[in-house]
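[step 3/7] fold_predict: job queued, chain A
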Amino acid sequence: MNEPELSPSEDPRTDVIPDIEPVAALAAPPCPFCQAARVADINYCGDCGYIFPDASSAVTQADLPGLIAGRYRLLDRIVERGGVERYRAEDIGNPEAPIPVIIVRQLAGGDSQAALAEAGSVFEFDLLERSEQATSSLPDPVGSEQWPGIAWEQGVLLRAAHLSLPRLIDSFNEEDVAYLVEEVPSGASLWDEWDRVGITNRERFTWMIQLAQAIDRLHFAGAMLEGLRPEMIVVSRNGIAILADLSELLPTPLPGDVPLRGGFSTAPELLLNQEHADERADLYAFGALIYALMLGRELSDLDFTLTGMPRPYLERVPDANPFLSRLLAKTFVRDMAQRFPADDGPDSDRTGFRELIACLEACKSNLDRVKIDVAAWSTTGMVRPANEDGVAVFYWAESRLDDSDGAALILLADGMGGMESGEVAAALALQTLKECLLTGPPFATGLPSKPLSTTPTAEALVPDWTPVVENASGTSLPLPGRFREKESPERSVDGHAERVANALREANRRVFETAYANPGSRGMGCTAEVILVDGNLALVGHVGDSRVYRMKKGKLTQVTKDHTVIARLIELGQLTEEEAELHPRRSELQQAIGGRPEVYPDVYAIILEPGDWILACSDGLSNQLGLDVMQGVLRETKNAERAARRLINMALFDGAQDNVTVAVVRAS
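[step 4/7] structure written:
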C-alpha cells in the first residue's frame, strides 16, 4: 500500500528550522587514548599528546587481507607508527580453537625488509602447547635493523630473550608485505591479580622484579618503553608477569623527534627534551605503574601538581612502609637526577635498574612483615594472697643493608597445685620455654641440632657468618645468618610449629619430673601459652585453660580451646554455655603442664595484618571480664601498653577474684 507523500513541514520525522545551514559533517571522534574531545585541524590530543593517525590511512575490515600464510586472520588494528602496523589477530591453524596472536605488518621495502623476505617463513612449534620459555626458536634477523621496523622488533626480542616478554612465533613475507607473529600471553590482568583475595606482597613484588629484569634486558637489546600501565601486563597461571603489549617500544638511543602518544606514565623528558632522554625514562614509567597499582586505579590529572610532576606518595600516605616510599621516591619523580641510580652508581649502573631490582627485592622481603607493639602486666588480684601466674616478653628488631628483621616471643603460665607449688611450676615452665625457643630461629640461627632437653652452650649460640656482600673495593663482608635465613624452611609455619610443640612437651617433662622427685610438690602444674611472632606469622602454642584471642577488623574471637572437662562437654553438646558457668567441675583441667608424663599441645598459625591484635590472658581475666568488654578496650586504645594496663585495672575494679595476667600484641 502506497503512503501519501508528506511535505517536510508535515513529516513528523523531520524538524525544519528555517534560516539554519545544514551541518556539513559529523564532529571528529574523541581521542582513543584518553577520550578527550578532539579539536578540528589539530593532529594530536591537547590532553594526553596522542598523535592521531592520518584519516586517509584508517583501516576498515574491508581493507584487511584474507587469510595470511593460510592460517592467520587480522581482526583489528591496535596502533600504527611509521608505517608499521600492529594488529590483534588469530591463528586458525586449529579451526575448532583459534589462538589469539599479535601480528606486526609492514610493507616490504628497503634492504631490511628485502632481507627478511629472503629468510622466508619460520614456524617451528605448535601454538597449542604454551611453554614458559624465552624466545629462542627464530633465527637472528638479517639485514639492517631500523626503527620502526619488523626486523628491529624481532632483533630486540631475540636479544632480550626473557620469560616476561612475548615469544616470537613466526616471520614471513607475503605479497610484498612483511609479517611478524607474536604470542598473546594467556593469564589474568595485573589489575585483577594485584588485588586478588589472599595475594601477598611477596607475590606482587616477585612480578615487579620479573618485569624490571625484562625491561633491563630490553635496554641491553637496544629498546626502551614510552610508558607502562597495568593493563599492558598479564600474569600467567605459572605466576610469571608478562609484558603483553609491545606497542610502546622505542629505540635507544632515541633518533630524535620521535612521535609519541604520551600519557601519565610517559617520562616528561621524552615529551619535552628527547635529546637528553635515556633508559632512565623507564624508571619513571615503572614508578607510575606501581603508583597506580597502590592507588587501585588509573592515574589522572589529580595525581600531578604540574605536567609530569607527580604528587609525592608520602603526601597521600604519610605512614607508608619506608621500603615502598623509597621505591616511589626514586622512580616516579620528574627530575631525572633524583631517580636511581645513586650518586656513586652511574658508572656500574647507568640505567639505574640494578638499584631498582635491589629495591624491589627489599619490598618483596619486607612489606608483608608487620611491626609489632608488645606489652604485658600481671597482678595478684583482690582476693588471692600471692601471684602464681608468670609472664615473659622478648622482642627483637634489626634493620640494616636495606633489609629488616624482627620477632617476638610471649610466654604466659598460670600455676596450680598450691601457692608455692604453682609458682614453681609456672617459673620452671617459663624457664624451659625460654631455653628451647630463644636459642633457635628466629632469635638465633646457624645453630647445630641439639635435643631440646639440653641447654645450648655458648659456642652453639655463635651465629653462622657467611660472606654474601661486597663493599666498594670488592672485599667480601660477612652478613649475619638471620638475614641470610629469613626465608628458610626453619622459619616457616611448619618449622616454628614443630619447635613450639616440642618446647611445650619439654616444659611438661621437666615440671612432671620435678613434681615426682619432690613429694611436697606432687600435683603441681600450670597452663602455658606461647606466642611466637616472626614477621607477619604468629604461632600460638596452648596447654590448659588460659586463652589467646585475636581481634581482626574490630572483632575479637577466641583462638584457643580450653582443655577442660566442661569445654569438652560443651563441644559434645551435653552442656550449654550458661550451664557451664555454674557447673562444679568448671575449673577441672583435662591437660596441664606437669599433670601427666605426656602432653599434647594445640598449635595454631595466624597470618597477621596491620591493625590486628593478639591478647593472651590467664583465666583470671577471661572469667572476670566478658568478651565484649575486652573487645571494647582493644578498639578504644592505640597501643599495647595502654591496652594491657586498662584490662588489668578493669579486672581489679571488678573485684579480681583470681590472679590476673595479660599480654597484648598489636600489629601495624
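[step 5/7] annotate
The mean pLDDT is 83.
Residues 372-456+489-667 form a domain with the Phosphatase 2c; domain 1 fold (CATH 3.60.40.10).
exit 0
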